[in-house]
Each structure stands twice: as C-alpha cells, then as structure tokens.
TrEMBL record:
GO terms for molecular function: FAD binding; UDP-N-acetylmuramate dehydrogenase activity. Its cofactor is FAD. PROSITE patterns: FAD_PCMH. Its EC number is 1.3.1.98. It comes from Ziziphus jujuba (Chinese jujube). This is UDP-N-acetylmuramate dehydrogenase. PANTHER family: UDP-N-ACETYLENOLPYRUVOYLGLUCOSAMINE REDUCTASE (PTHR21071). The keyword Flavoprotein applies. It is found in: Cytoplasm. Cell wall formation. Pathway: Cell wall biogenesis; peptidoglycan biosynthesis. Keywords: Cell cycle, Cell division, Cell shape, Cell wall biogenesis/degradation, Cytoplasm, FAD, Flavoprotein, NADP, Oxidoreductase, Peptidoglycan synthesis. GO terms for biological process: cell division; cell wall organization; regulation of cell shape.
Amino acid sequence: MPIPFQIRHAQLLFHTTRRNNTYFCNNSYSFSKPQQTHDRNDLKFVHGKKLLKDLSTWGIGGPCKHFIQVFDQTQLASAIRYCHENSIRFIIIGKGSNCLFDDLGFDGCVILNRIDFLERKEHGVFRVGSGFRFNKLGKQCSNEGFAGLEFAGGIPGTVGGAIFMNAGANGQETADAVESVEIVTKDGKFQRLERADLSFGYRLTPFQTMQELAAIVAVTFQLQRSESSKMRQLEYLERRRKSQPISERTAGSVFQNPPYLGVAAAKLIEEAGLKGFRVGGAMVSEIHANFFINSGGSTSQDMLTLIAVVKEKVDRKFGVQLKEEVLHISPYCNDVKPNKDVTFEGRKIDTHCL
Ligand SMILES: Cc1cc2nc3c(=O)[nH]c(=O)nc-3n(C[C@H](O)[C@H](O)[C@H](O)COP(=O)(O)OP(=O)(O)OC[C@H]3O[C@@H](n4cnc5c(N)ncnc54)[C@H](O)[C@@H]3O)c2cc1C
C-alpha cells in the first residue's frame, strides 16, 4: 500500500529518540539563536546557524538546530552516537535534491554526508561511498565502458540519496545495478545487505521503512561491459538538457508517474493547463510541467500550496491522484498534522497528503 506523504516523512525520514514513549520535540526552540560551534572527537558541530536553503537544490529552508558534515564512516557513526546520547533527532542528507525543507528549518541535527570514496574491485565492480556524486559515478563508469548507470549522469544527488529513493530514468533504476549496500544501524553496528535480500519498486526501497537504519554508508555496484555505454550516457544527458529546466532551482520531478496509466505526470499537469502556473515564488516549469521552480524567494509554503493546487486540479480534470516524489522535511518530526490546512484564493484545499 502506498505510504501517505505526511506519514512517510514523519515516520521514515526522521531518526528520532523517545523518552517515556513520547517523542522528544522541543517546539519552543528559538531559531534566532546565535551560531555556536563545538568539537567532539574531531567533529565540528554548528548550532543554530546553518540554513537548509544552502543545502538543497530548491534553495528553500530555514536554519537547523544542529549541523555536522561527515567525511568518513567513523565520523558518521560518531555523529549518530552524539545525537542518540543527547536525545537529538537527526536526518542524513546528500545533495538535498529530492527534499523540500521548511521555512522554519529543522529542530534537530542535519548530518551532511560527504563520504565520497570510489574503489574499483574486480572487473565491473565498484564500491562507492554514499556521499559520492551520483552523476559523476554515472559518467565515470560509462566512460570506462560499463553499462547500468548511464542514466545517473544529470541526477544531481549522492549515491546514498539514489539508493534511498531508487532513483531512475530512461528505463534504468539504481537498484538494477546494486550488488550490496552497507549501512550503520541506530545502535552503531555496521551491516552489509545483499541485493538478493532487498526488494525495490518504483521509487520504493526497503530503506524507507527500515526501523534499524541510521544511514547508508557505501554501495557496491556490479556493472556489465558495454561498447556503447558512453554513447548512451551522452544521449540521455542531451535529452535532459532539451527537456528539463536544468539551469533553474528545482528538485527534479515533483510527482511520481501514475502507475499503470501509461501517461506521465508531466503530461497530465500540462494538459490541465498548468505550465507557468505560480504561487508566490514557486512556479510550474514552462519546459517540463513536473518540475516546479523556485523562481526567486519561494517559501516552503508557496511550494506546498503549488503542489496542493496542482494535485487538486489534475484530480478534478482527470480523476488521477498524483503522489509526491519529493519529500517534505517537517521541522518537527511527529507533531505534523495529517490534514494541514492550505488555502488558495480564499478557498481551503483538501491536502490529505501534505
Ligand atoms: C535537475 C534534477 C534532476 C533530477 N532527475 C532525477 C531523475 O532523473 N530520476 C530520479 O529518480 N530523481 C531525479 N532527481 C531527484 C534527486 O536528484 C534524486 O532523488 C537523488 O537520488 C537524491 O539524492 P540526494 O543525495 O540529493 O538525496 P537527498 O535529497 O539529500 O535525500 C533524499 C532522501 O534520501 C535520504 N538519504 C540521503 N542520503 C542518505 C544516506 N546516506 N543514508 C540514508 N538516507 C539517506 C534522505 O534522508 C532523504 O530522505 C532530480 C533532481 C534534480 C534537481
């Protein structure tokens, strides 16, 4: 059964700590707190200053309460342990290219993953840090004559984000090329999971519901020799350049393509006459209707309202309920309202998924 958007980000994305069965949320936190840093085992935490808009391709989002950047798995495990010891909820992010952060920021710790090694194992086998750039990996493997990740050139995320989301394009998916995934659990243990034990679907992965998961650390890919991989990779990239607003601030496709309909979400949005439609600084792209642009100064509320209005109009016209692919990261994990009120042009819009 598909997981509702709100529930998904409330329950899956946030690694929270609980006291007496109550989620520890400090809603009275003041976001105007001045920046402070402290070192702990070589980790530099920044408190109260880092802006999420600087960590996301959409360029939207307020300050996070704690921020830390990690470059290897020891630092990652150490940062996770620190959050646990101090009852701080945390989220790990790569390039923030699939996330809508909130104007209120995040009342916890954002761990920015920059674990970016690449090891060549046997022929066609690559072990890659989860913070490695996915588009760089796609280009590199294709250049070396290996097929399986040609589609990744042009996806501006990390390997960790790609495996978490099962990113895909042009009939290829991340999961197809995976041999194993290394994770760190909430109690600090490292585990290697074999591909055969993991089941993936369209933008659906076991990591989205894995209770013990703290973070994905590395992925091993098994690729096939191919004479034409480089040509295909360049072809896909060219197609992207022609059909997507690549110079704008976006988060890729906002909605998943509806299953079994044989029609893309972009087509439905376009046919509903919504290209160029805007709410504040948020706008439906004129080039690709499933890409929503921060045209300057978009707030998270502008974007959420635009998403809600587009959903409603497509539903009214075609009877199709679009499902978000982007993830809204709420500032507080578990106090989100399942029926958030969104009003547009004086009307209240039903946003059961926002
Ligand atoms: C111009 C553009 C084009 C795009 N094209 C495509 C496309 O063709 N196909 C496609 O599928 N997507 C596409 N995207 C969306 C996005 O780039 C992908 O979903 C990408 O894989 C997200 O990676 P990220 O590192 O930015 O993840 P983030 O946005 O940082 O995070 C996404 C989710 O993954 C989780 N996560 C990230 N890293 C880890 C980790 N190490 N361990 C555990 N959880 C983690 C985060 O907590 C979050 O829940 C596009 C986006 C843009 C802006």
